Amino acid sequence: MSLLSKQHVLTILNNPRLELGDIQFSDERINRFQQFCQILQKWNNKINLTSEKDARSILEKHVFDSLQYLRWLDPSHKTLDIGSGAGFPGIPIKIIHPALDLTLLDSQRKRCSFLREAIRSLKLEGAKVVDGRAEDFSSQEPFSEQFDRVCFRGFSSLENCLTVGLPFLKIGGRIILKKGAEEMPDSNDETSRNVRIVESKEVEGFEGQSSLMMVIEKCST
Predict the structure, then answer these.
(1) Per the confidence metrics, is the pTM higher than 0.90?
(2) Distance from CA of residue 2 to its chain's centroid?
(3) Would you identify the CATH topology of the domain 6-218?
(4) 109 three-class SS
(5) What is the pLDDT of residues 113-151, one digit of tens each?
(6) Cα-flanking dihedrals φ and ψ of residue 155, to 5°?
(7) I need a surface site. Which of 27, 33, 40, 132 has the fewest CB within 10 A?
(8) 136 CB-near residues (< 8 Å, 6+ apart)
């Protein structure tokens, strides 16, 4: 099993493209990133969670991409990560913001088992896992219009992300997702769904690949 050095984790966290200059990276945070990537590497030998199998690649691709979401998240935001899979973007966000109220939702039981193990091993208090399809929970009282932020990463089309995510949001809550520039919604989408595009920002992955981070606010039901 490949091991991550503290210095390499710091190299990722201090990358200027992430704009995390105001955050202090304690030894506890760094250790949690090291441990998380190693747990994921171990589980990847049992179930297919990511195509990247070694801890360094997981850090450089998936953790780096997940940290792009921090620009639009605050520790006070009650946050739902839909289709969390291997814990992205939710677990890296939680490591940076340990006070964040975080729910990880995934429809595959084996992935949920991994997520629970990661939360337990990393001692991430205030994080929980929900096993099932998002559509089955969105109308239930503990979930319907209860969240400040809903995050998607590699989930589905923009149209489907809006359909699935909006019922979970409070009025004024926001969906944060990463998509290709060709999926930018037009003004008709905003009007028909009572949403507002707050921001669309082109970002680069660790190896320089471009994508679009989109923030979409729910204006009314």
Answers:
(1) yes
(2) 24
(3) Rossmann fold (3.40.50)
(4) helix
(5) 999 999 999 999 999 999 999 999 999 999 999 999 999
(6) -85, -60
(7) 27
(8) none
